[in-house]
Amino acid sequence: MSKTHVTTTINGEPTEYLCEASQSMLDVLRDELDLTGTKEGCGSGDCGACSIIVDDRLVCACLMLGAEAEGRRVLTIEGMSHGDKLHPLQQKFIEMAALQCGVCTPGMLIAAKALLDRNPNPSETEVRFGLAGNLCRCTGYDKIVRAVLDVAAEQRETTR
Amino acid sequence: MARVILTYSFAKQFADGQTEIELPGRTVRQLIRALEARFPALEGHLEGDIAVVIDGVVHQNALLEEVAEDSEVAFIPPIGGG
Amino acid sequence: MSEQRRYKWVGTRQNRPDGADKVTGRARFGADFNLPGELVGKVLRSPHAHAVIKSIDVSKAAALPGVKAVVTGADFPEQPDQLLPAGEMQVNLRDVTRNVMAKEKALYEGHAIAAVAATTAAVAQEALSLIKVDYEVLPHVIDVQEAMKDGAPILHPHMRTDGVKPAPEKASNIAKRLEFNKGDAAAGFGKADIVIEREFTTQPVHQGYIEPHAALASAAEDGQVQLWTTTQGHFQVRGFCCRLLNLETSQLRVTPSEIGGGFGGKTVVYLEPVAIRLSQKAGKPVKMVMSREEVFRASGPTSGGWVKVKMGAKKDGTIVAADITVALQAGAFAGSPVGPSCMCSMACYDVENIHVVGYDVVSNRPKVAAYRAPGAPISAWAVESVVDMVAQELNIDPIDLRLKNAAKQGTKTHYGPTFGVIGMVETLEAAKASPHYKSKVKPGYARGVAAGFWFNVGADSSAAAHVGEDGSVTIISGNPDIGGSRASLALMAAEELGIDYKKVRPIVADTASIGFNFVTGGSRVTFATGLAVVNATRDMIGQLKQRAAKLWEVDVDAVVWEDGEARPSSTNVGKFEPLSLAKLAASASRTGGPINGHAQLNAQGAGPGFGVHIVDLKVDPDTGICTIDRYTAVQDVGTAIHPSYVEGQLQGGAAQGIGWALNEEYIYDAKGRLLNPGFLDYRMPVASDLPMIETVLVEVPNPAHPYGVRGVGEVPIIPPMAAIGSAIARATGVRMVDLPISPPRLSAALDAATPRMAAE
Fold first, then answer.
1. Region C411-437: what's the mean pLDDT?
2. With 50 as the cut, is the pLDDT of residue C191 above it?
3. Nearest residue on chain C to A135, judged by CA atoms?
4. A: neighbours with 3+ CB pairs under 8 Å?
5. Which of chain B's residues have a Cβ under 8 Å away from the Cβ of C454?
6. Which domain range does residue C563 map to?
7. In this structure, are A8 and A74 located in the same domain?
8. How confident is the model at residue C4 (pLDDT cuts 50, 70, 90)?
9. What CATH number has the domain spanning B2-76?
């Protein structure tokens, strides 16, 4: 079976790869491009550990085919920080202990970024529903929700 | 004499139903030996898969731990943890 | 607590040392390790809940191009049917090897039957389909009470119930009977003004770690093996694998990855021995990763259980007697946590007459693994619900009733020992004084309360401290960091050494690079490994003082270590400029060589923990959906080394308990096949299901630890189920006895109760 040639942009970098027609975007990221920050928790779109942003839309990489990235812009956890500067969400997650084991963290951060990009002033309920597709088994979500609300408040402060 | 305590089922099974036994011994090992001498059926059941509580403090794998003259030493089922 | 502030680092909320790695995707978890030329390993699993394996034909699979190795149960040597130590756990290796790879029988749906290693995942998958297994399907049994009945399908024809005298002659699924007694329960009930008796059940629930099991093995031709795996205890993995494969421990080097959750479920082996065996046969590295479906079908969960509670109390609230029976599913092999379940059942209370019987029961489900305070949540669900019924019946505040009966120093437990200093009363009082309990319950809502007890454990730990030439320090331990333990260990080391927390770098070393460490589990790491780290740094400080004494040509007793530097102990010693850690480290070679501290110990005195949870919720009578409005977890935590991660343990445990209470369960079809092996249908709490989880940390330092540490991770999963059940009972007048209290189950119970209530 011949492979599909894909031209896309990943974390701002023009990227080309070959993938099987049936290969998920998650497997492409992890196995072909060595971007292992995106995690597999279920492979069925239920846990959000593989959350990525494709053209400003939050998706589970396990539910997308690698071939579908053709011509799109993909953001993974590896592209969230800028140079040596962490994204405010990343910084706040560390400061507020919004992670324990850390395996859901990349997906959680990507989902939180997608949420704040869409809604810079979310209520607690909106944060909870915005992150409802991302399972965390360690934290009970308390510190995660607080961290996201804090970042939102700080960003509003700085853009005022 | 230390006061040695066995669980009810252990005592019924191996120690003529006695759950509390006064025994001489200054270490857990000495108490185990004294117990086994009194109740031969206990032999081999007091080492390994069992926890030892000395004066309210749970010990995993206790053998050479010292016990005081008036200590309470209880043998209980092992405790794991998540 | 104000007295805690005498510490500079302990008790502060520093950024964790692995934080940047974990928020950038740089941290490597189990499935993130790869080796050149690695093969993909996959497991063929039984489609039947119970079947004799008459034959396995692997010839077609082995002949498929790209397949490099195939293994079945025959590739794993027979093991003795007795408890033997492996990685300091007492395990029945006959059972362990059969759980890793079935031999004569498949004992649950998902049981590993064979495995292949191939060049690609697609080839491995195709090879599995070419393996021909001839099964003779047998009747199966899932439910714990069914499994105990005469005439139930027998899983192990050689199994006789242990703990029964005379020893039974007939085979049984009851592996063990336990009995605990204090006083005379029958006589005690005679003194009671009220007696309440109920039966409760729980379903098996999975630990639900987000990271599936994964292992990468590389076996060399000379017998040496390397293994990378996600585990709570790489020394246990080494112990189990060496026993199962007849390897010497020095030949197997196990490196733990970052671990994506465990909660007890990653203290055993599944893939690891299989990956090693495949690698040995193929002569190439083999990587194996479970799918989520495999995690559900073949790993964990904890037991489902049946608990009967009879409790008698006087009108003034004094509980005078309790008679409890606990039966827990062990899964396919003996070894449920029924012992701790029985012991914890009444441990919160000082009651004169207690009788508890426990049964360890096998059935055609995956072998249970530890899950946070193993066994305790199941008996507590029943006992705490009945305590609440007593409070309701006598019209006494549920915290006051518990205070009246609370265990305290000198309370003789029903399982034998007498309690030393414990914090049940303080925890109850803190709960009573909490903002949540003092607040009025909102109209339409109801409040529930429940308590929990767990022993906590210490056990074996090793640690080392190395100082670099610039005075920065590496702390080496051997416990996978599951929830911030590196931060806690570094805080204690910084405190001891008197240097900046940022100058301390903690790492988790592989089995060849540090001495033995028992698993990360039982809430032991900050306590026991913390103690080892403290001792290792003190060992280092002793050496630093010696070097200073040599340089100053004074006696070592004349040197003290303060604020990160050696100082003369008084002006009498002489006038010397203090020597900082950095200065002493820089001159180490000229003063006697490298300065490294070491410590190893079997930590004792972990000290029990108590927790009280408070929940406010409302019930939608039409749908049976419970909405939790407010939740508070109160716990006796010793000293909170890193308060954020202590709070995190309480919050996470409470959330898991809420899932256990309201939604999570294994659902089987008539053939014993799991119907919900995925996160869509195995419904764990998501962010929108929960409120903020308030915490109250009751800090009573543990005298057995230099910083007063007490394990905190187990207790928080114990009270939630009964707290929620009791709130529902108070909201609706219906006492639920079966978990989970899922919307369909609750709405059915409410519907059933309505006509009766209308008629009353």
1. 96
2. yes
3. C686
4. C
5. 81
6. 2-26+458-603
7. yes
8. very low
9. 3.10.20.30
Cβ pair C16, A97 in contact under 8 A: yes
Q: How many domains does chain C have?
A: 3
Query: For residue C199, is it within any domain?
Result: no
Residue given tokens 């409005």 in the structure block: C629
Confidence label for A1 from pLDDT (cuts 50, 70 and 90) = low
**Range C286-317 burial, b when 16+ CB lie within 10 A, else e:** bbbbbbbbbbbbbbbbbbbbbbebbbbbeeeb
Residues C249 and C130 in one domain: yes
One-letter amino acid at C468 equals: G
Contact (CB<8Å) A101/C690: no
Q: Number of structural domains, chain A?
A: 2
Residues 682-701 of C with CB under 8 A from A: 684-688, 690, 692-693
pLDDT tens digits along C529-561: 999 999 999 999 999 999 999 999 999 999 999
Q: Could you say which of C259, C275, C298 is where a domain stops?
A: C298
Distance of CA C299 to the CA centre of its chain: 14
Judgement on whether residues C671 and C740 belong to the same structural domain of the protein: yes
Partners of residue C258 on adjacent β-strands: C29
Close Cβ partners of C385 (under 8 Å, ≥ 6 residues apart): C198, C200, C309, C450, C722, C725, C726, C729, C735, C737
Note the pLDDT of residue A40: 98
Is C753 found in the same domain as C634?
A: yes
pLDDT for residue C220 is more than 50 = yes
Listed residues C264, C298, C332: the one ending a domain: C298
Same domain, yes or no, for A99 and A53? Answer: no
Q: What six digits make up the tokens of C389?
A: 């019924």
Give contacts of B74 with chain C, Cβ < 8 Å: 415-417
Q: Check: pTM over 0.95? Answer yes or no.
A: yes
Tens of pLDDT, residues C73-95: 999 999 999 887 777 777 899 99
| Res C742 pLDDT > 60 | yes
ipTM of predicted assembly, 2 dp: 0.98
